[in-house]
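Request:
Um, any thoughts?
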Amino acid sequence: MNQNGRPEWMQDASVQNIPEEKLDFLQKLVFESAGLSRKELLPFLMALAQRSKNARISFTDAEVNAVIEAVRKYSTPEELKKTDQILKLMMPKK
């Protein structure tokens, strides 16, 4: 966090064109998922998908990539591990 109370990743140049309400939604996701085990992540992500649908929040591929890039840039090794777990559950296998 910096002096204005916003996480550094939310102020990265790569996410500057993403609407603030989308960034706030993602930040809530980060806080809510912080203590979840790998087993708890899938049900959490399914519920999150429904919440985003209800809130009419969706992300373009470019927005997703920009957010991932920004989050990874400012993450600790532990946070990177959690991010990778979430991405494995969310991204379709090729």
